[in-house]
Amino acid sequence: MSRYSLDFRKKIVEAYEKGDTSIRKVAKRFLVSPDTVRRLVKQYRLTGDLSPRKCGTKKKSILSKHEEAVIDIVEAHPDLTLWQYSDKLRDKLGINVSTTMIDRFLKQHDIQPLSQSLSTLTTLGKPVIQTL
């Protein structure tokens, strides 16, 4: 749903609160859905405010709770694959995480395990020697 101006929201709620009309009639009059009218009226009655609420939720990764332990495991075993990290985290910390979640965590912390950096050093199936 697009965000409606605060003034427009007030007009919708005021039109319904007058009491001489239905939600559907108000929705038709302002060219919005009946659910929008219901939601705005409910929000106004509960909070007294009509400002837009924030969209979505900000869920924290389960790995963020174990950040230090995860980093310690990666530093202690830099040559493991993402699947192996998943197994190790399940064994040591008792948490089940996907390889995607581990990959995202590592990217957020600018960590590149040795197994991933080695796989990027191959060209046409032939290893490339990298000098330090």
From TrEMBL:
Annotated Insertion element IS150 protein InsJ-like helix-turn-helix domain residues = 8-54
InterPro entries (UniProt xref): Homeodomain-like_sf, InsJ-like_HTH, WH-like_DNA-bd_sf
The reply to whether Manganese figures as a keyword in the UniProt entry is no
EC number(s) given by UniProt: 2.7.7.-
Report keywords, A-Z: Nucleotidyltransferase, Transferase
Q: Which GO terms describe its molecular function?
A: nucleotidyltransferase activity
Organism listed in the record: Limnospira indica PCC 8005
Query: What general EC class does the enzyme of this chain belong to?
Result: transferase
This protein's name: Transposase IS630 family
- Pfam families in the record: HTH_28
